[in-house]
């Protein structure tokens, strides 16, 4: 195959440069060479015809779980990144709640080494805020910074002690890395299984109140205001949380936020239909909450969409509800879930792409990613907005088959994913042709 690749005739959307037009894109030596209508006649390049397809920067997932080391029965860096490629993602940020946790230089170097050897796409590790994710002692954030950490989180657990959170935010201010907080007041959620409300009462399960999320957000926004640090709120799920984030932004606080596809599109009713496959933390909430989250994404109060891909084995989920772990496998269904919102005119196509590309790149401070600018890495997602497909977890690249979407028809299908100029996923209906076949 030629060293260069021409993606010809797609609808190119790049929110970072305010581009939305039909054009062609040339990749050379792993970077974006040019974007436009003119095609050089004498270049030696292969061709991928993108007529009728959308061509955009590769998606960036700021929040996923690759499970390695220690939980390889659930996922590995190899399987998780292959799933990411099938979902249109060219960069994933892996959370540190592995076994052992990613709380020191050696652990981050391990992840980077495995990712370089076995990963299908780029992997950025996120380091722990506290030693062992125990919440008692601040980890050596500077050491992990030198080892490639792009942010810090105790995800799966909050930082309950405000003095430790304050010190982490001070570090964030000085080194320009986001502190990614799992906002949950554990004193309010102990034993909680689903959203506190009608469904929890109907199922006889202890509820998780909205206040448990909202009160920690309120505390952390105050700490971010005092320190000037960068607070990033993970997996926002409630209307009240949105209100607090909006108020913080209006007050000039450096706070960003993410929402998952499942919190945008599913409600607590899915728990009745799908049991443990819909058990996630924070829980699926009410229709009123999903409406508020969608409005916040459209208004840029919520900055990005992140999957919180949380793979588990079938045995993990096939137990009594209270014993099942939280989590939904989401990398391979993210686009299809979000496309439904676009087709229903609830979310604009450009806003969705921005929330999956430019937005997370800016949160991370990597503005050469999430763009099709000349000279940027050739990370590209090509998708068909209208292609209908049926979710079949047996076909997932991920080891995690745990999703309430199995068997459902979705529209919006990733057709190809290109990472640093190399096709890492391509739908069987597409092919890359030699130049002479044009």
Helix content: 25-40%
Total domains, how many?
A: 2
Just name the CATH architecture of the largest domain.
Answer: Alpha-Beta Barrel
CATH class of the largest domain: Alpha Beta
Q: Which runs of at least 5 residues are low in confidence (pLDDT < 50)?
A: none
Distance between the termini: 15 Å
How much of the residues is beta strand, in percent? 15-25%
The count of β-strands is 18
Shape label:
globular
User: Kindly state the mean pLDDT as a whole number?
Assistant: 96
Radius of gyration: 21 Å
CATH topology-level fold name of the largest domain: TIM Barrel
Structural class: alpha/beta
CATH superfamily of the largest domain: Metal-dependent hydrolases
Work out the helix count.
15
Q: Biggest sheet, in brief?
A: 8 strands, mixed
Topology:
Blueprint: E1 4-14, E2 19-28, E3 31-36, E4 45-49, E5 54-57, E6 59-64, H1 77-86, E7 89-94, H2 105-118, E8 122-125, H3 141-146, E9 152-153, H4 162-175, E10 179-181, H5 186-189, E11 194-195, H6 198-203, E12 207-208, H7 210-227, E13 231-233, H8 239-250, E14 255-259, H9 261-265, H10 269-274, H11 287-298, E15 304-305, H12 314-317, H13 334-343, H14 349-356, H15 358-364, E16 380-390, E17 409-419, E18 422-426
Parallel strand pairs: 1-4, 1-5, 6-7, 7-8, 9-10, 10-13, 11-12, 13-14, 14-15
Antiparallel strand pairs: 1-2, 2-3, 5-16, 16-17, 17-18
């Amino acid at each position: 195959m030629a060293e260069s690749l021409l993606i010809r005739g797609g609808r190119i959307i790049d929110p970072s440069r305010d581009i939305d037009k039909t054009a062609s894109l040339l990749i050379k030596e792993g970077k974006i060479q040019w974007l436009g209508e003119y095609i050089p006649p004498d270049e030696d390049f292969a061709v991928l015809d993108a007529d009728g397809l959308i061509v955009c920067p590769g998606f960036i997932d700021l929040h996923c779980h690759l499970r390695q080391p220690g939980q390889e029965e659930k996922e590995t860096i190899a399987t998780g990144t292959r799933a990411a490629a099938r979902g249109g993602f060219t960069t994933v940020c892996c959370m540190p709640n592995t076994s052992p946790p990613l709380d020191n230089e050696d652990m981050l170097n391990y992840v980077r080494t495995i990712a370089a050897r076995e990963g299908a796409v780029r992997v950025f590790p996120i380091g722990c805020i506290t030693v062992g994710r125990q919440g008692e002692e601040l980890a050596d954030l500077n050491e992990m910074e030198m080892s490639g950490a792009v942010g810090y989180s105790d995800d799966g657990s909050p930082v309950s002690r405000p003095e430790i959170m304050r010190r982490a935010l001070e570090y964030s201010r000085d080194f320009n890395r986001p502190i990614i907080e799992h906002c949950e007041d554990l004193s309010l959620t102990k034993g909680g299984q689903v959203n506190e409300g009608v469904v929890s009462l109907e199922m006889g399960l202890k509820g998780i109140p909205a206040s448990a999320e909202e009160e920690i957000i309120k505390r952390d926004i105050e700490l971010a205001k005092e320190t000037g640090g960068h607070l990033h709120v993970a997996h926002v799920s409630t209307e009240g949380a949105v209100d607090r984030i909006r108020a913080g932004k209006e007050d000039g606080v450096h706070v960003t936020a993410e929402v998952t596809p499942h919190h945008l599109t599913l409600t607590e009713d899915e728990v009745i239909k799908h049991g443990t496959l819909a058990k996630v933390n924070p829980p699926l909430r009410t229709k009123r909450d999903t409406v508020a989250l969608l409005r916040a994404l459209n208004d840029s109060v919520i900055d990005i969409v992140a999957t919180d891909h949380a793979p588990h084995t079938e045995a993990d989920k096939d137990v009594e509800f209270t014993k099942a772990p939280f989590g939904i496998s989401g990398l391979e269904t993210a686009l299809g879930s979000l496309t439904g919102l676009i087709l229903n005119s609830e979310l604009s196509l450009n806003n969705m792409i921005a929330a999956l590309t430019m937005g997370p790149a800016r949160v991370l401070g990597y503005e050469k990613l999430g763009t099709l600018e000349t000279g940027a890495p050739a990370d590209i997602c090509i998708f068909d907005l209208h292609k209908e497909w049926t979710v079949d977890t047996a076909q997932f690249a991920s080891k995690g088959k745990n999703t309430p979407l199995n068997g459902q028809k979705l529209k919006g299908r990733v057709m190809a994913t290109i990472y640093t100029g190399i096709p890492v996923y391509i739908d069987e209906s597409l092919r890359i042709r030699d130049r002479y076949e044009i």
